[in-house]
Amino acid sequence: MFVHHVFFWLKDPGSREDCAALVAGLQKLSKAGMIKDFHIGQPAGTNRDVIETSYAVSWLLLFDTSEDQEAYQTDPIHLQFVKECSPLWSKVVVYDSI
Amino acid sequence: MFVHHVFFWLKDPGSREDCAALVAGLQKLSKAGMIKDFHIGQPAGTNRDVIETSYAVSWLLLFDTSEDQEAYQTDPIHLQFVKECSPLWSKVVVYDSI
After folding, report:
1. ipTM of model over 0.90
2. A1 touches chain B (CB under 8 A)
3. Whether the model pTM is above 0.95
4. Residues 18-37 of B with CB under 8 A from A
């Protein structure tokens, strides 16, 4: 199992429209064939010192193999997503774990 | 779906023993009854600017509801894990998303 977890911060953190556009983009991106499972989320409202709550959107992907994750990086659906949606975000942090 | 993703940094990052002890603790913790699914991981070896690779262990939990995650926080199995394993880590970062 390969876990690919991406957190997005928006250029305009207060924009509900931008957030909705990013989520819509991720929903399209979720059709990439090598994705085993995915979850699109937003901060849950929990609040302790150790909890990072400043991001706008969480994009959790599960792949069967590292190769699937590599193939996803260059899949046309992924490249199209980056082209369309990257103007929306100011920062991305990725955690890949196996 | 409630996604609870925890990243641990070890006090002694070079210690394979401490890493193994933390993973063993998480395996015990995974028996907590309200956990729907879990994944214990380590950095995948991917390497781009946006990828955080400095943590030692990734602990991904899926819960059906926010209430299950709340109950997990005070479950005796969780409290025992914190008691036994917290001396191992120097930093924890948590992302909760729904």
Report:
1. yes
2. yes
3. yes
4. none
